[in-house]
Specification:
The protein has 472 residues and is α+β, with helices and mostly antiparallel strands. It has eight helices and 27 strands.
């Protein structure tokens, strides 16, 4: 999150919310980021404050039904007069390309000096033929800029439009969820001038405590040209905390959250003595200011270990944080030795039995990026530079499918779990399980949980576990 005058923020997405032309049949995880876009985009999928320039005003090339098959695109950047951090996003699809470079998006001053640019490569392209957003970000001083979208030699690109919108500085908490000692420093990173508006500990408002600590100097502030760092010792802010504490902070109309633990999660298994040890994971609500429970957490908490044959179950609710969630699962796997790991997450419109995990963290699906719960945005970054590009589930999906259909559910197979935190956990667990079984199941986006709904999702989790054990 370092502030730099010409910093780059790339976002390569599979099917962005700015759904210009397109498109493919519905996928089971469509709608996964519903809470991030509701009320934030117009009917065409553009952010409400976006300035949109059509490809016809920028490009030389063949006009198509959806845009322009480009040879070269360059022209004035509409919206550049806005000040602050701007996202410049090109909505395009790659029709054909070899290996290596595919297309470059460049923003330059009127005299030709390049302000920011980045090149999409074939390795970072999630899917050819699908509409994607390729974005760069820069700090605007309000002066005119030009934008260029330049395909590499041999690449065929179709462009729909370029949009420009202010990209608000994200509120970020550090060090992230996990074991945090009393003397360890918590850092709250905000935009310059943004006040800390509300601080909650386990749901209780402790904003007055924050202000009192700031008044005595227990909270220090460091200003840079692009951010303010607020630093406080964990023990000072979260006095008399329990074993697990939820910290949530709001500033500048954004919210971030972080879980502070005193010790790692205990290896606490429930169920049949001597049964197969099974680790079952779900997620906390997201976004950080989310108003409803996460269906995956509901399912994990509602499942009944006593209803399972030959299983001992350990439950783990994960923070919605890049790498931190995956690290928490990996640490428990190493210490508590489960033979099976089944992870659940909040998806789109159906139960999605995930087949493949990908070595990629990408904030796709929403223009400008999707932050995790502590405010971090990842864009086309590998999870593990030493690992393969993808990994397959080792869960018996056919058996799970049959078991769920016997309950009256209608699961679907999925080869696209997204590239958000769910995929991050899925990729990590399948690589760490060794000779056991690990995989991921998305549950449908759900906002209301009466007793019947909780029982339903608990039964889904139980069936997936039992089918996995019976297939061994």
């Amino acid at each position: 999150m370092e502030g730099m005058r010409a910093r780059v923020a790339i976002a390569v997405v599979l099917a962005g919310c700015s759904a210009a032309p397109a498109d493919d049949a519905a996928r089971p995880n469509d709608g996964m980021f519903k809470d991030f876009v509701d009320g934030k985009v117009d009917s065409a999928g553009h952010p409400f404050n976006a300035r949109v320039t059509s490809a016809g005003d920028l490009c030389w090339g063949e006009r198509t039904e959806d845009g322009v098959r480009v040879a070269w695109c360059e022209g004035p950047l509409d919206g550049a007069a806005q000040r602050g951090e701007l996202a410049v996003s090109a909505r395009l699809r790659v029709i054909g390309a070899g290996e290596g470079e595919v297309v470059t998006v460049r923003v330059a001053e009127e005299n030709g000096t390049v302000t920011v640019e980045d090149t999409l490569t074939a390795e970072r392209l999630r899917e050819r033929g699908a509409w994607i957003d390729v974005s760069v970000a820069y700090w605007s001083d309000g002066q005119p800029r030009t934008v260029a979208v330049v395909p590499a030699d041999g690449a065929e690109i179709e462009l729909a439009y370029v949009e420009v919108f202010p990209r608000r500085f994200r509120l970020v908490l550090s060090p992230g969820s996990g074991v945090v000692a009393d003397g360890e420093v918590i850092t709250v990173e905000t935009a310059p001038g943004d006040a800390i508006e509300r601080v909650e500990i386990d749901g209780a408002d402790v904003s007055e405590r924050w202000r009192a600590l700031a008044a005595t100097g227990a909270i220090t502030e460091v200003d840079t040209g692009f951010r303010t760092l607020h630093r406080v010792a964990a023990g000072a802010l979260v006095a008399d905390r329990g074993e697990v504490t939820q910290l949530r902070i709001s500033a500048g109309s954004e919210t971030a959250r972080m879980e502070l633990r005193r010790t790692p999660a205990p290896c606490q298994y429930e169920g049949a003595p001597g049964g197969v040890p099974v680790l079952v994971t779900g997620f906390q609500p997201f976004p950080a200011d989310g108003w409803h429970d996460n269906v995956s957490e509901v399912a994990v908490r509602a499942l009944r270990p006593s209803a399972l044959r030959g299983a001992r179950v350990m439950r783990l609710i994960l923070p919605v944080e890049y790498d931190r969630a995956a690290a928490a699962v990996r640490e428990v796997m190493a210490r508590c030795a489960p033979a099976v790991v089944i992870s659940f997450g909040q998806g789109g419109g159906a139960i999605a039995l995930e087949e493949t995990a990908y070595n990629l963290k990408d904030t796709g699906e929403v223009s400008g990026g999707v932050p995790d719960n502590r405010g971090v945005i990842a864009a086309a970054l590998p999870i593990d530079t030493a690992a393969p590009a993808e990994r397959s589930t080792s869960l018996p999906l056919a058996a799970i499918d049959r078991a769920l259909r016997a309950l009256g559910e209608t699961p679907a197979r999925s080869d696209d779990p997204g590239r958000y935190i769910c995929n991050n956990v899925f990729f990590t667990t399948t690589g760490a399980i060794g000779g056991g079984k690990a995989g991921f199941i998305h549950l449908p986006y759900t906002t209301r949980f009466d007793a019947a709904a909780r029982a339903r999702w608990g039964a889904v989790a139980e069936s997936a576990i039992q089918a996995t054990l019976d297939a061994q």
